[in-house]
Amino acid sequence: MEAKLTLVTIFKAYDIRGTVPDQLDATLAHLIGRSAARFLGAEALVVGRDARSHSPELRDALVRGIRDEGVDVIDLGLVATPMLYFAVDLLGAGGGIMLTASHNPGQYNGMKICRQNAIPVGEASGLREIETGIDAARSAPVADLRGGEREIDVRDDYVEHVLRVGEGRPELHVAIDCGNGMAAAGLEPLLERLPIRVERLYFEPDGTFPNHEADPLKLENLADVSAAVKRVGADFGAAFDGDADRVVFVDEHGAPIASDLMTAVLARHQLARNPGGLVLYDLRSSRVVAEEIELAGGRADICRVGHSFVKAQMRESGAVFAGELSGHLYFRFSDTLVADDGIAGFVALLDVLAKERRPLSEIIEPLRRYSQSGEINNRVGDVGRVLEIIENEHRDAPSVSKLDGLLVRYEDWWFNLRPSNTEPVLRLNLEADSPERMVEERDRMLDRIHALA
Q1: Which residues of the chain have pLDDT under 70?
Q2: How far apart, in Å, are the Cα atoms of 85 and each of 14, 91, 165, 347?
Q3: What's the confidence (pLDDT) of residue 420?
Q4: Which of 28, 190, 324, 365 could be disulfide-bonded to 328 (CB atoms 3.0-4.6 Å)?
Q5: Is 139 labeled as catalytic in the residue annotation?
Q6: Omega before residue 21 within 30° of 0, cis
Q7: 340 bridge partner residues
Q8: Distance between CA 359 and CA 363 in Å, rounded?
Q9: Positive or negative, the Cα torsion across 281, 283, 285, 287?
Q10: Are 121 and 111 in contact (CB under 8 A)?
Q11: pTM: predicted TM-score of the whole model, two decimal places
C-alpha cells in the first residue's frame, strides 16, 4: 500500500479513520504505531481495541510498531474508549491508542490517540505531526531494545471510577441498547453493582453491527430502545455509540431527549456537587442550557465543537462539566483526568432520578421552551465566501462570534453556521423563541445560503 495516498483521507480533525483494507491496513497501522510512539516520547503506551473483525490484525501491527520504537505496550484488550482514557491516567502512562471507528459501519476502523492524562491528540495538537512522521518511520531502524508487552484488566477499577459521578442508586427499570458496540465492556460489571432491572439490547460486541448502526444521533437507531422502554414499562432508555464515549437517552414514553437538554439537566446536579462551578456547552446548544446553569448558581460558557477543543477548554478554565449536542458528556473526574464518557453519563442520570423522584419526561418538559431547527447541512461551492458575506450582512447584530464558524445572536433568535472539516458543507443550527419565528428565520437563512451557493 502507498501510505501517502491514504493519509489525506484517514487523518481527520480528531482521530484517524478509514475503510479497511483499502485506506487502512496492517502495514499502515504498523507505521502509525512507530510514528505515534516517536511523537509521544513515552516509556509506555496503553492500547485497546473494539470488536471489528479487522481489529485484531490492526492491533497486532500497531503494537509491533510501538514496540519497534523501544516503547512498552500495556494491552487492555476489548474495551470502550472511556476505559482506555481512564487506564492511561490510572497507570500514569505516557499516552494511549484506542483502535476503533466509533459509530462508523463495520468496514471502517481507526485510532483515537491521547497523551499523558488522556489529553487528546488532534489535528492542532499532534495528529499532523504523526501523519508527517510516517515517512521517517518507514526507513528508521528498529530500536536496539524493543519494548515489552503486558496485559491488564481495568474493569473493576473503572466501575469504581464512574460510580463517583453520582451517589444516587435508584431501583429503576431501564432499557439499554449497546448497538453491538463496546459499551457492554464497561456496563456489565457496573450493572452488577446497581439495584436496577435492565432490558438488554445488543450487548454482544459485533463489529458487523447486525442490528443497526451504533450511532444514537440518528433517530432510526433509537427505535429499538424506544420500543423496549414502552414494551416493558421502563423508566428510561439509553443508547450508546460504538465506542461508548457518547450516549443518548429516551424518556419513559420512549421519546428521544436532545443532548443539549440533557446537558442542562446533568449540569444542575453536577453543580450541586461543585457549587458555583463553570459548565461548558457547545455553541449549537439551546439557550436553555446557559439559563439552567445560571439558575443552579453556576457559570456558563460556550465552547467549540469537538472533543479535543472541549477538553482543552475544560482544562484551561477549570470547568467541572460540559456537554455537546452530539451526545458527548464530559466530566472532571480528578485534577488530572477530564474525559467524555457515556457510561458515566448513564450513572449521572441515575443520580438525577434518585434525587428528583419524578419521571424523566417531567424533568425535561420545562426545558423545551424554545424552538430549534436541528442541524441542517448545506453544500456550497466556496465555504469561506458564503460565511464572509453572511457575516457582513449580520454585522449589526447584538452579538457576533467567530469561535467556531459564525455565531450570531439576536434578542429572540440566533444561528450558527459551521463549516465541515471534510467537505464543502455549511451546517446550520438555528433557534427562536417561537416555532413560527424559527421557521421564518430558518427558511430565510436557507434561501440565502442556497442563493450564495
Answers
A1: 1-8
A2: 15, 10, 16, 17
A3: 87
A4: 324
A5: no
A6: yes
A7: 330
A8: 7
A9: positive
A10: no
A11: 0.95
